[in-house]
Amino acid sequence: MSFYERLLFEDLRAAPRTWLVTGVAGFIGSHLLEALLLLGQRVVGVDNFTTGSPRNLEYVREAVSADAWSRFDCREGTITDMGVCREATRDVDFVLHQAAFVSVPLSRQDPVACHDVNVTGTLNLLIASRDHKVSRVVYASSCKVYGDDPHLPKVEAHCGVPQSPYGVSKAVNELYANLFHEQYQLECTGLRAFNVFGPRQNPYGGYAAVVPKWIHAMLNDQPCQILGDGSATRDFVPVQDVVQAHLLAALAPAAAVSGKVYNVGLGRRTSLVELHAQLASIVVENLRDLSVLPPVSAPPRIGTVEHSWADLSLAEADLRYHPLVGLEEGLAEAVRWYARESRPA
């Protein structure tokens, strides 16, 4: 942890705030909750449990003290309900907005549902935050807003055309957040996370993210499916660094970050073939009774971006963001966690 982060987090402990985390039972939302409770904060959480899991909240409860858990107020509801947003933002200092329609492929099948949650829901939350004079909203954008832009690494100022309703919805969120910053003086900061992975990420379903899906396959003696020839690259970022970026974005000076959007990644790219090899090595090293089957190939999905890689210059300059967890370390932690959860003691 950098000196700058230590100063910020010591300030948090010395003067606790109240935070709203939307999508609190989700993968990233539950990690935000855990970090905030460990830092002595009060947290209001909202989730409709469509994709979020009560088990994720149980993991947090098990990881923190009883006193810390008592500072958490969990409310079941959806951000598409303005009444839920108004009640949740009352007497809140910061909003960390994670609730979303999260699947790119499913957004193509049901663009209306994606729009309702990601656009209307976010607009509801911005209005409620404005009216209750929330100090700052840090919202989850996505690297999917870069769309068909061919330049590498991806720089915040240069976006192409989004290739899915999900990408469009996140781009619209950025426009609305900037509007609320400019016209209503609501402090808003967006984070374009790249390919986040880590404990608690759902490995099930046809559209699960590649890291948990492959770990689950390896632990169950199944071959991993590589879409395309495996040369596609992604910027895989451990969830701990995404949590770090949210806290830095919430606490950074307003003049530096309000109205802006930032990449959050490791600042490196890894091909799918390389990812498979690294995961296989970690699985064999940590679980010596397992062998890993060779991967199988499948056609790439329509509209899939071939390469993704985050330029971190702006986040480093404004947020003092620097990745704390390396790819290998993050993958090893994820493998050990999934192994504990899925294999008998």
**Coarse shape:** globular
Secondary-structure-derived class: alpha/beta
Strand coverage percent: 5-15%
Oligomer: single chain
Integer average pLDDT: 93
Q: Please give the share of residues in helix.
A: 40-55%
Unreliable residue runs: none
How large is the count of helical segments?
Answer: 14
What is the CA-CA span between the terminal residues? 33 Å
Total count of strands = 13
- Radius of gyration equals 19 Å
- Strand line-up of the largest beta sheet: 3-2-1-4-5-6-11
Give an overview in words.
By secondary structure, the chain is of the alpha/beta class. It is 46% helix and 15% strand. It contains 14 helices and 13 strands. The strands form four sheets. It has a seven-stranded parallel β-sheet, sandwiched between helices. It has a two-stranded parallel ribbon with strand order 7-10. Strand 5, helix 8 and strand 6 form a beta-alpha-beta unit. Helix 9 crosses helix 14. The chain is globular. The two termini are 33 Å apart. The mean pLDDT is 93.
Characteristic terms for this protein:
two-stranded parallel ribbon; alpha/beta; seven-stranded parallel beta sheet; 14 helices; 345 residues
